[in-house]
Design brief:
cytoplasm, EC 4.4.1.16, pyridoxal phosphate, 13 helices, Aspartate Aminotransferase, domain 1, selenocysteine lyase activity, alpha/beta, 455 residues, single chain, disordered N terminus
Length: 455
């Protein structure tokens, strides 16, 4: 049995190897078409459509990280050249991230990721409420410490880094939480429902900007406008406003000032940056409260101490710069690719297809197609485990260990349980091509045929 050469490495045909090429693909070097079509299934070129889970690094981002690792290895708090270089890179990256979200450099706090940023917001809201109540009592000459628990409003489709923190605060008796359900018609949280949930002790409203499973864009700007009117009422504690923009950045325009939020969560690995994050705060410590969860050095103006991760911050800054310069092209390409994907799925599967990411009257992300192929043996996990080329997921990556239960997000949006069980979340990226779409749809067609014949 002869050998084939794959990427200049001799490989036996019985050796299992997966070749992943993200975006536009071509045959591996030194591999003819005849050799390629005789490869085992495990050696077929795979197609990635899980960009809502994570994204690869752009080449310019890799270069920025590499240069920082080599040239800016010094401690940013030091005065010598290597440290000064690191400080310059951090400052430039802070400017780039701020520009991406319509803020100022001083509004950006670097964090380890979105989870830390979201935790920091909820921690701050509860702590600020406690301190404000204590100050008010002392001003009135009362020091009995009896005041209402802080009240948080969020939706029932938030990321776990908001949902589980809220649940923890409630379980520990540190806060009351209202989970406003999304509409089963629009899959969107209704502004009136948010306003109706406000209490005198409401301290925070946290609503994601775009849902990671359905792609629905939430009416955050309208919510902020209504709550700002509430905040003008005399003698009421200010309600802080937060949005987790993880899924929106790099896909649609995001401007924190236009939205009217106090806090906005930034997650690098969703827009071709490394796994680091940031929190936009509208005037941290001045216009908007921010209380640290960690204590140590004075980095990040004492809001988030710890020696800065210069290379990853450099990568985040470069990725933000690319978004600012190219967002219109990114958005247009992803939208046209997603529409083509939906058209091909409808053409091939006809009445067996059900889209879980199409809701009347709701704005949608340009890249997200959540779809179920109807049939008793076509559960999402089963389809994906039998696909030869498609790399995708059935929902949020953070729920991958929850078994094969239907997504609670889809159920909350009114998707029937038997349909939600078959869901596939297909999310395209900047480099996804129509050829990729054609190959994925054919892969799904073959897989569905196989599973139905096995039944």
């Amino acid at each position: 049995m002869g050998q084939v050469v794959l990427a200049n490495v001799p490989v036996s045909p019985c050796f299992e190897l997966t070749v992943s090429i993200v975006g536009t693909r071509k045959l591996p070097d030194n591999l003819t078409l005849a050799e390629y079509v005789t490869l085992p299934v495990s050696m077929e070129v795979t197609i990635y459509m899980d960009y809502n889970a994570t994204s690869p690094l752009e080449p310019q981002v890799i270069r920025a990280i590499s240069e920082a690792l080599q040239d800016a290895w010094g401690n940013p708090s030091s005065n010598y050249i290597a440290g000064a270089k690191a400080k310059v890179i951090i400052n430039q990256s802070r400017e780039s991230v701020a520009r991406m979200v319509g803020g100022k450099a001083e509004d950006i706090i670097f964090t380890s990721g979105g989870t830390e940023a979201n935790n920091l917001v909820l921690h701050t809201a509860v702590e600020h409420f406690r301190r404000s109540c204590r100050a008010a009592e002392q001003g009135e000459g009362h020091q009995n410490g009896n005041y209402d628990l802080p009240h948080i409003i969020t939706s029932n489709v938030e990321h776990d880094s908001v949902k589980l923190v809220a649940e923890h605060l409630q379980k520990d008796g540190k806060a009351d939480v209202t989970y406003v359900p999304v509409s089963k018609v629009t899959a969107c949280v209704e502004v009136e429902d948010i306003v109706a949930a406000v209490r005198p002790n409401t301290c925070l409203i946290s609503i994601m900007l775009a849902n990671n499973e359905t792609g629905v864009i939430m009416p955050v700007q309208e919510i902020c406008q209504r709550i700002n009117s509430v905040n003008k009422q005399k003698d009421r504690l200010r309600i802080l406003l937060h949005t987790d923009a993880a899924q929106a950045l790099g896909k649609i325009p995001v401007d924190a000032c236009v939205l009217g939020v106090d806090y906005l969560t930034i997650v690098g690995h969703k827009f071709y940056a490394p796994r680091i994050g940031a929190l936009y705060v509208n005037g941290p410590g001045t216009r908007t409260p921010l209380y640290p969860m960690l204590f140590g050095g004075g980095q990040e103006r004492n809001f988030r101490p710890g020696t800065e991760n210069t290379p990853m911050i450099a990568g985040l800054g470069k990725a933000a710069e690319l978004v600012t310069c190219n967002l219109s092209d990114y958005e247009s390409h992803m939208r046209s690719t997603k529409l083509y994907l939906e058209e091909r799925l409808k053409a091939v599967f006809k009445d067996k297809i059900h889209f879980n990411s199409q809701y009347p009257g709701s704005d949608m992300l340009p890249n997200t197609c959540n779809v179920s192929i109807l049939g008793p043996t076509l559960q999402g996990w089963r389809v994906l485990s039998n696909c030869r080329r498609l790399l995708a997921s059935v929902g949020a990556a953070c729920h991958s260990g929850s078994g094969n239960r239907p997504s609670h997000i889809l159920l909350s949006c009114g998707v029937p349980s038997e349909v939600a069980a078959n869901a596939l979340r297909l999310s395209v990226g900047r480099g996804t091509t129509k050829a990729d779409v054609d190959a994925v749809v054919e892969d799904l067609r073959e897989t569905v045929q196989l599973l139905e014949e096995m039944d």
